[in-house]
Amino acid sequence: MAMEYKDMEVRVSGVRLSPTKTRVSCGGFDLLIDKLGGDAPSPLDLALASLVGCINITATLVAKEMAIEVSEASFEAMGIFNPAVLYGKEGPRAGYKEVKVIMRLKTDADEEKLREFIRRVEERCPVSDNLSNTTPLRLVVERA
What we know:
By secondary structure, the chain is an alpha+beta fold. It contains 3 helices and 5 strands. The strands form 2 sheets. A 3-stranded antiparallel β-sheet has the order 1-2-3, with no helix packed on it. The longest helix has 23 residues, at 43-65. The chain is globular. The mean pLDDT is 96.
């Protein structure tokens, strides 16, 4: 019998500490977020960090299902970003133009199995899916 999964809500909250700094609470942890080049990771840094973390978790699940041994794994994510739109100027878009992730794996998988492994990881990673596809977003303002 197949297990049935239900929708889950993931919730974070944030408080403005300064014009560039935000303290965010998520999953029982507090994070400090700052601008690019500030005193803490930027939202753009954290988007890539989330992607790397999610790929690691997803790759672990997929490797187990495919009986692939991964004895070592490291990841590097790079994004191309143009700040023009952020600063109110003409530009292609506000977000990353491209994101590249390099997975360095020590594994017993042959090339064919590794290609299928990567396909499944890309397909199943929730953060990768959110970066690759449009997700409806509603910004709601409430008076404090």
